[in-house]
Design goal:
The protein is of the alpha/beta class. The protein has 2 domains: 136 residues, Nucleotidyltransferase, domain 5; 166 residues, 2-Layer Sandwich (Nucleotidyltransferase, domain 5). It has 9 helices and 11 strands. A 6-stranded mixed β-sheet has the order 5-4-1-2-3-6, with helices on both faces. A 5-stranded mixed β-sheet has the order 9-8-7-10-11, with helices on both faces. Helix 8 links the parallel strand 10 and strand 11. Helix 4 packs antiparallel against helix 7.
């Protein structure tokens, strides 16, 4: 029996989970409300909050899983990418825990974790793993990629953003509209009440499978600025239609790029992962496309789309089976690339 304690601290969520023989026993996440009044994550405040949250999160995860410290066979942690100060808290805790209990360390790439979330299993919950090879649309606040996953440890990037990520486009739009942080979920909520065809925004002209969202962000900013000059109440009077139109545009860009990747590779086993995969507009669009085009679609449960330690734990479980352990000299890497 292999029991792994996993830690995730790449941004502003402190999470701890326990995985046993590939099965999720517990997954605890402490959110940080301190950032709301600043309209975004403040790195220094995030790292301080992690220091306060990590011990209670781990303690709760162990209790929820019904295991003790002596039952843990390895401790896993997010090495990167992410905010350096936040990552260091998780790495330092994991190294201390491993040293104190004489157990191995397992480093995990945050992006690998998001893809691994597709393999998470819970007792009593029906689940079907994606079949290799499959394509993953990985979309979050910091990343937008299309990845060909050949097996658990062999991945090939088919397309990626040349500037900003889809999640950032959602968040910056929310900020432009004066919505509180985090604004992405609010755009999703309001989009359901609006007309997605009301306002048109220009599409970036990049490669068939690459993304670009900086131009879209600028177009939205100028659009709101110009309309506000004509009518100071424009945003308030048209909020639902603006949100629906912006969401439609972003989702359409993501979907068209994915369809190009499917045409290019011939693969119809499709998955979506990352924080933006929680967006209801994207989920609905991909389900329609899957039905119309004969794709087999895999979407993780909502609770596994945002940053969480369960996805780090399941990745670590497979690394444990391969005896891929890290030394005590390991450190965090904010710009870690290798998955």
């Amino acid at each position: 029996m292999i029991t792994i304690l996993a830690i995730e601290s790449s941004c502003d969520d402190t999470s701890a989970a326990v995985i046993q023989d590939g099965m999720l026993l517990s997954n605890v996440t402490a959110n940080q409300d301190v950032h709301k009044k600043y309209g975004g994550v403040v790195p220094e405040l995030a790292s301080r909050a992690h220091q306060a949250n990590i011990v209670p999160a781990v303690d709760t995860a162990l209790k929820d899983a019904g295991v003790s410290v002596s039952d843990i066979d390895a401790v896993a942690f997010t090495r990167g990418p992410g905010l350096l100060g936040s990552l260091l808290v998780g790495v330092s805790f994991a190294k201390g825990f491993a040293l104190a209990n004489d157990i191995p360390l397992i480093e995990v790439n945050h992006l690998h974790g998001h893809i691994s979330a597709l393999f998470l299993k819970e007792k009593g919950v029906p689940h079907t793993d994606p079949e290799f090879p499959f394509l993953t649309l990985l979309v979050s606040g910091g990343h937008s990629q299309i990845i060909k996953v050949n097996d658990f440890f062999e991945k090939e990037i088919i397309g990626e953003t040349i500037d900003d990520a889809a999640g950032e486009a959602f968040d910056k739009t929310a900020k432009i509209l004066g919505l509180p942080y985090p604004g992405g979920p609010l755009i999703d909520k309001y989009a359901k009440l609006g007309n997605p065809q009301r306002f048109k925004f220009s599409r970036p002209k990049v490669g068939d499978t690459d993304f670009s969202f900086s131009g879209l962000k600028t177009a939205i900013l100028y659009f709101i600025r110009d309309e506000h000059k004509k009518n100071p109440n424009f945003v308030k009077e048209n909020l639902y239609d603006i949100c629906a139109s912006v969401q439609y545009t972003i989702v359409d860009i993501l979907t068209e790029k994915l369809k190009n990747a499917i045409k290019q590779t011939g693969i119809k086993e499709i998955a979506v992962a990352g924080g933006v995969s929680a967006n209801s507009g994207l989920r609905e669009r991909l389900r329609k496309e899957a039905k119309a085009n004969g794709w087999t679609l895999h979407i993780p449960d909502f609770k596994f789309t945002t940053d969480n330690a369960a996805m780090i734990g399941i990745t670590a479980y497979h690394k444990f089976l391969r005896k891929e352990f890290a030394g005590q000299d390991i450190t965090a890497e904010a710009r870690l690339k290798n998955m």
